[in-house]
Each structure stands twice: as structure tokens, then as C-alpha cells.
Amino acid sequence: MRFRNVLRRTIIPSLALIGGLGFTAPSSAEDNLFTRADSLCLYETLLKSGRSYSINQDYDLALDSFNTAQNLGERLGVSRLELSFIHASLADIHYTQRDKKEQLEEAEKAYKLMPFNLINLNNLAFALALNNTGLERALSLSTQAADTFQDNP
């Protein structure tokens, strides 16, 4: 609990400050206050914080952490797999908060980054069905997931 309070008072406001200053991934250590290693460390901290906040059902802070990680990750050029994980996590949080529109948008982003990922196939199919839009596509995605991963219960 103490770490959580420290995180709320220090890291989250610092991230807002960084965003407010137009933080970009550094091209060299001399060009920016943060080195690439510092930026990657911050990125990993944001992912861990987002997971922790989500587990503890503090969804607003989880959304802040994951959104900031996503923005920083794009600037740093992290893998499509990592960005896909962030969007899938955001979709899960939006589902929990009953925000179907945002859930569908994030599930679509995750799918576009990693279209053959079982979780992304399933999440997008579910979001489409839940929104009662694109039901034929939802069925197609579900069938693709079932056919591709027949041995996975």
C-alpha cells in the first residue's frame, strides 16, 4: 500500500510533466534528459504499474499507466507484440468498466498489430458480438481462432 501511495504521488505526476513537456524518445544521451535505457526502464515500470493497478481494480490509474506506456512504447519503437499486449489490456479494462465502444476500439488495435494471436482473435470477436456489430466478422474470427488452435481448450 505504501508503494502505491508513493507511485501516485511521484511517478504519475512525473509522467504528466514529461507528457506536458513534449517528451520524445532521445536520439542520444546529450540530446535529452533521459537516456534510452532510462526511457525503457520507465516503460517497463508503466507496464508493471498498469498490471498492478488493474489487478487491484484501480482502473483509472491502470488506464493512465497503460496509455502512457503505449505512447512511450511507440516512441521507443517497442515490438508490435508488446503494443498489442497494451491494447488488449486496455480493452479488458474498458470491458470491466462497461465501455463497449472503447473496448471494441482497443481490441481492434490489438488485432491489427497481431492478427494471428489467439487472445486478439477472441477478444475482437467478443467485442464485436457484445456491440452487436459485425456479427459475421465475429463469427469468422471465432472460427479462425477455433480452427487455428484446435488443441487449445
In short:
The chain is mainly α and 153 residues long. Helices cover 75% and strands 0% of the residues.
| Mass-distribution shape | globular
Helix content: over 70%
Number of strands: 0
- Strand count, sense and closure of the main sheet? none
Instruction: Assess the beta-strand content as a share of residues.
Output: under 5%
Distance between the termini: 37 Å
N-to-C order of helices and strands = HHHHHHHH
Quickly count the helices.
8
Radius of gyration: 17 Å
Average pLDDT? 81
Poorly predicted residue ranges: 17-23
Structural class: mainly alpha
Describe this structure in words.
The chain is mainly α. The protein has helices spanning 2-9, 11-20, 36-55, 59-76, 80-96, 100-113, 118-130, 135-148. The protein is globular and about 45 Å long.
Question: Which descriptors apply to this entry?
Answer:
153 residues, mainly alpha, single chain, 75% helix
Can you lay out the helices and strands and say which pair or pack?
Elements: H1 2-9, H2 11-20, H3 36-55, H4 59-76, H5 80-96, H6 100-113, H7 118-130, H8 135-148
Helix pairs in contact: 3-4, 4-5, 5-6, 5-7, 6-7, 7-8
